[in-house]
Amino acid sequence: MQQITDTQRLGDDLAQQCRPKAQCLIGVEHEKFIFSRYDKHLLRYAGGAGIHALLAKWQRFGWQPSFEQDNLVGLKREGAAITLEPAGQLELSGSPWADLHAVYEEMLEHRLQLSELADEMGLGIMALGFAPQWNREAVDWMPKSRFHIMRGYMPKVGVHGLDMMTRTCSFQLNFDFCSEQDMCDKYRVTMALQSLVMVALANSPFADGRDSRLNSYRNYVWLHTDSARCGILPLVFSPELSFTTYVQRALEVPMYSVKRNGVHVDLAGRSFADMMQGALPELPGEKPTLKDWKDHLNTLMHDVRLKDHLELRGNDSLTLEHSMALAAFWTGILYDDQALSKALKFIEGCDVARLNQLRHRLSEVGMAESAEVSVEGVYPAESLLAALKYVTALAHEGLKRRQKVDVDGADEALYLQPLQDIIEQRLSPAERWRKLFKHQWQGDLSPLYRHAVF
């Protein structure tokens, strides 16, 4: 592949990802914990009921295997992939689709396939943002060289990096942009509004076998992972935001690795800009390829990141119904011109410092007190609840205007209903789990293993 020697090529590559509006698609990435029903332990890689065996059996559904050094580490099929996170968390990286009905069908098929295999192998599936009881010392690291590089690097840049790798699961969404200005508009809206749905759909109240007293312990962990590449990215709110300035910012973030001959070379802490000059001691004289650059962009882990598309990364892993509600929320806002325009107007006075302050409170904020949480300087609304109601209404209107209907004539707005119910009841998934834990379950987490399923 052609070597990259100047930053202009990097900015040009991002610009080439722009799509016509009619070709803008929706993609999902869903992570979940897989455990043994018999002892409630996370799966190890090897063994008759391990991760390797699960991936091997999954090929009966037409998936093709992916290997690293002869280790089966994933599956792929028709633009989709099933991959492994460091401690065996299983991720569906779905195909991009034109509407939410197709997204739902893909996610439902994935759940049904996984459920069939889980029943056959005695496995459980858990959709939570943070491991409720498992500690990181007990996990089995997956045989992927990149993970072992990150394992050594993470403790140098944050106190919870290893927890992020081994004990978190997320639900992510991918959306396209039509132009540089469209990218800027969508990036600002998603970065500014993500805090609202992170509160509404918080889904990780437990850690180390007890109530963490937070609604999203996962969000707390991410804020203490690596300040160079996590949380709010202030550049997004600057008038200077562009493909070029994003490249410049990305070049400031230290590298993890590059892949050579199927294995990742440890470059943790090195500079991509130095590699463009052939100045890395590990690879003397060697300059990066465009694939290396795309891999580097994939190590930036802000709440929203830019690569071939915009990737929204802020939410805990969720049930199918809540996953679809989040997908509907963002589709209605980002893929309808009127809704996007109103959302831009709503956030135009957003002060990035105050947004960052709110972002750092999100782990503890619940829907129960959302009507009393001030958003002054962030949104023109009386409270967090009022802001959430306003933008959810924008999403609903946008979905209606899209007029994407299923075989029964129902439009995409039907998928938004679970989020609307949360707003009406002022009860996030995390708050619901805590209520059950304290009262019906009487402090016992065992029922969670039966109920917190994808």
Automatic annotation (TrEMBL):
Any one biological process term the GO annotation gives: glutathione biosynthetic process
GO molecular function annotations of the record: ATP binding; glutamate-cysteine ligase activity
Gene3D superfamilies associated with the record: 3.30.590.20
Catalytic activity: L-cysteine + L-glutamate + ATP = gamma-L-glutamyl-L-cysteine + ADP + phosphate + H(+)
Protein's organism: Vreelandella zhuhanensis
Protein family: Belongs to the glutamate--cysteine ligase type 2 family. EgtA subfamily.
Protein name as catalogued: Glutamate--cysteine ligase
Known function: Catalyzes the synthesis of gamma-glutamylcysteine (gamma-GC).
